[in-house]
TrEMBL record:
Source organism, top-level taxon: Bacteria
GO molecular function: glyoxylate reductase (NADPH) activity; hydroxypyruvate reductase [NAD(P)H] activity; NAD binding
Name of the featured protein: D-glycerate dehydrogenase
Keywords recorded for this protein, A-Z: Oxidoreductase
GO CC annotation terms, alphabetical: cytosol
Domain D-isomer specific 2-hydroxyacid dehydrogenase NAD-binding: 111-289
Domain named D-isomer specific 2-hydroxyacid dehydrogenase catalytic: residues: 6-320
Organism: Halobacillus yeomjeoni
Gene3D superfamilies associated with the record: NAD(P)-binding Rossmann-like Domain
InterPro entries linked: D-isomer_2-hydroxyacid_DH (IPR050223), D-isomer_2_OHA_DH_cat_dom (IPR006139), D-isomer_DH_CS1 (IPR029752), D-isomer_DH_NAD-bd (IPR006140), NAD(P)-bd_dom_sf (IPR036291)
UniProt family annotation: Belongs to the D-isomer specific 2-hydroxyacid dehydrogenase family.
Length: 321
C-alpha cells in the first residue's frame, strides 16, 4: 500500500524522521532556518496528504481549499493562530498542535526572561563586554527584586500555571486574569483571580501568556500600559500581536513602565534596527520559549504521531477542534 505523503515545511533531524519512514513518505523543505516561500508552500501542499507546519507558515483558506488530498495539518507549536482552523474544519482537514510537551520549558524561559529583565542581566553582560567595568560599586547595575513581589499572569493556561508554580517558589503573590476561573491554581498556588485592570495596576510583573485571538489582539496597548505601575515590567512570551509594540516602546521610553522582556514580536523576526532593541530596559529574545532540544524533539514526535494516527484512523492525540 502506498504511504501517505507528508510535507514538512522545515528541515528536521533525520534521527526523528527515520523512525516514521516506514509509515510516511516525506517531502521535506531542506532548510533549517528559512521558511518555505508561500508560493512553494501552496504548490507543494496540493500534492500531499498531510503537512507538518511551522508557526511561520500561513495556512489559509485558499491553501486548504486547493489541497484536495490534505487530511491533516500538524502545527509544531502550541499556538495555532497561523492556521485558519475554521476553514480546515469546513474542508474536513484536521489540525493538531503541541500542548503539554512544551509547558515546563516555556515556563522556564518565561521566568528566565522575567529575572533577566528585573536584574538587568543582559545589560550587565554588555557592560563587561564594552569594557565599562572598572570597579565594584554599591549601586552598579542595581535592578528590581523579584522574590516576594506581585506577578500578574494574563492567560492562566497550562504555561501560565507553570509560571505561577515557579513564582510560588520565589514567594511571590500571584494574580491572574483568565477567561475562566482556575480554582485548582487558586487552591494549590494561592493565586487570586482579578479583573484585567486590577492585574495591570497591582502587579510588579505583568505577563502576557494568552493565545492570540480577536479578543487579545493589542490588549496590551497605550491605555493598558498607562494603568501599570511606573516600576512594573511587562513580559511577553505568548504572541507579539497581543501587544502594541509602538505603545510599549513609548511607555518604556517615557518611564510609564520600567521595562520589558520579550520573546515574541508583532513581526518576526524583529528588524535589528527596531527602536525597542535600543532600550537597555528591554530584553529581547528570538522566539525561543520552547527551544530546548528535548522539548523540540518531543514536539516533532507529537506532530508525527498525530499524522500517523490520522492515517491509521485513530483518535488524534492533540486536536485543536
Ligand atoms: C508555541 O508553541 O506556540 C511557541 O510559540 C513556539 O514553541
Amino acid at each position: 500500500m502506498e504511504k501517505p505523503k507528508v510535507l514538512i515545511t522545515r528541515q528536521l533531524p533525520d534521527e526523528i524522521l527515520d523512525s516514521y519512514r516506514d509509515r510516511l513518505e516525506f517531502d521535506v523543505w531542506e532548510d533549517e532556518h528559512t521558511p518555505i516561500p508561500e508560493s512553494m508552500l501552496k504548490e507543494k501542499s496540493r500534492k500531499v496528504d498531510g503537512m507538518l507546519t511551522m508557526l511561520t507558515d500561513p495556512i489559509d483558506e485558499s491553501l486548504i481549499r486547493n489541497s484536495q488530498n490534505l487530511k491533516i495539518v500538524a502545527n509544531l507549536a502550541v499556538g495555532y493562530d497561523n492556521v485558519d482552523v475554521h476553514a480546515a474544519k469546513k474542508h474536513g482537514v484536521a489540525v493538531t498542535n503541541t500542548p503539554d510537551v512544551l509547558t515546563e520549558t516555556t515556563a522556564d524561559l518565561t521566568f528566565g526572561l522575567l529575572l533577566s529583565s528585573a536584574r538587568r542581566i543582559v545589560e550587565a553582560q554588555k557592560y563587561i563586554e564594552e569594557g565599562k567595568w572598572e570597579h565594584w560599586s554599591p549601586l552598579l547595575l542595581a535592578g528590581k527584586e523579584v522574590h516576594h513581589k506581585t506577578i500578574g499572569i494574563f492567560g492562566m493556561g497550562r504555561i501560565g500555571e507553570a509560571v505561577a508554580r515557579r513564582a510560588k517558589g520565589f514567594g511571590m503573590q500571584i494574580l491572574y486574569h483568565n477567561r475562566s476561573r482556575k480554582t485548582e491554581a487558586e487552591e494549590t498556588l494561592g493565586a487570586s483571580y482579578v479583573s484585567f485592570d486590577e492585574l495591570l495596576n497591582q502587579s510588579d510583573f505583568v505577563l502576557s501568556m494568552a493565545p492570540l485571538t480577536e479578543d487579545t489582539y493589542h490588549i496590551f496597548n497605550k491605555a493598558a500600559f498607562e494603568k501599570m505601575k511606573s516600576d512594573a515590567i511587562f513580559i511577553n512570551t505568548s504572541r507579539g500581536k497581543t501587544m502594541d509594540e509602538k505603545a510599549l516602546f513609548d511607555a518604556v521610553k517615557s518611564g510609564v513602565i520600567a521595562g520589558a522582556g520579550l520573546d515574541v514580536f508583532e513581526n518576526e523576526p524583529i528588524d535589528p534596527s527596531h527602536p525597542l532593541l535600543g532600550l537597555d530596559q528591554v530584553v529581547c529574545l528570538p522566539h525561543i520559549g520552547s527551544a530546548s532540544i528535548e522539548t523540540r524533539h518531543r514536539m516533532m514526535e507529537l506532530c508525527l504521531d498525530n499524522i500517523v494516527r490520522c492515517f491509521e484512523g485513530k483518535k488524534l492525540l492533540t486536536p485543536v477542534q
